[in-house]
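re: ur question from earlier - yeah i can do the single chain one, its not a big deal. heres the input i used so u can compare w yours
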Amino acid sequence: MADFKAFCKRKNIEISARRYGIDALGAMAQGLFCSLLIGTIIKTLGTQLGVAVLSDVGSYAMGVSGPAMAVAIGYALKADPMVLFSLAAVGAAANAEGGAGGPLAVLLIAIVAAECGKLVSKETKVDILVTPAVTILVGVALARLIAPPIGAAARAFGALIDSATKLQPFWMGIAVSVLVGVALTLPISSAAICQVLGLTGLAGGAALAGCCAQMVGFAVISFRENRWGGLVSQGLGTSMLQMPNIVRNPRVWIAPIVTGAITGPVATCLFRLEMNGAPINAGMGTCGLCGPIGVWTGWLSPSEAAAARGATATVPGAMDWLGLALVSVVLPAVLCPLIHALCRSLGWVRDGDLKLN
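and the output i got, formated as tokens:
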């Protein structure tokens, strides 16, 4: 056992929740962003502007989401080059076989394939044959074996959340908004979670509300400490930047969380705000304005995941635009500072608690 542990250490194989649940998951979200998400945005712009070349570029980017995710995961696992490049085939197979649960299948299968490839990498004189063969054979075999059930399970769970939100929009609006918003600020990927579960419709709208509450909320309440740089980096980047401050004083998280608990049911009950764009957009919040853009693209042309649940193209009215603006930006920018001021008056939060390094 000691020899095996030493061998794994030499191969940089670390079996831990952080390596697989944070590093790999976060990298997978980046792979999704650099393929499916940016491709969706470019394709939508091309379609709306009538520029065919942009639509083609977007389609190409969307088509390589599986390989992009797998290679990103391999990079996070510090895979050797031969393993890393071989993961492109693994990602394509896992994403295709997994269907709606493709991202989850890619995550699990790419991790196993990458670690198996790392085990044999540079251990033989014919490494150029052995390493890619082992990586690809293990990955594709697993894709054929477990990706379809993973996809079915992900679809079923996502459909359950969608149905529950329709039946109980108030309580599920709170739950989905708060949980996805918290996931966005934690060092895990809310975008990947939404993509895996295929969160669209009202559930996707609630997820968007929670993410925007975190990003816009933290950006506004920390303006005193971080000024314009902090406003942009958190409001258009990520609220994850506040994690060190949250660890030091968890009470700084109260205002964004409570704000999400308010805006979630506002989205689901008052405005019936639906996210029918790509599910990943539901977990992006205002990062690059991907969340609001996802709502807009869902109005014009619902994603495959949304269409499968009955979504159809609509012409947005004044209430739709008002709901999107209020839930995404206005309410978080107003409510979060008010709740934060209460926390400050109670002595729970002090000056400097939200200062970014």
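The two ends are 42 Å apart (CA to CA). not sure if urs matches, ping me
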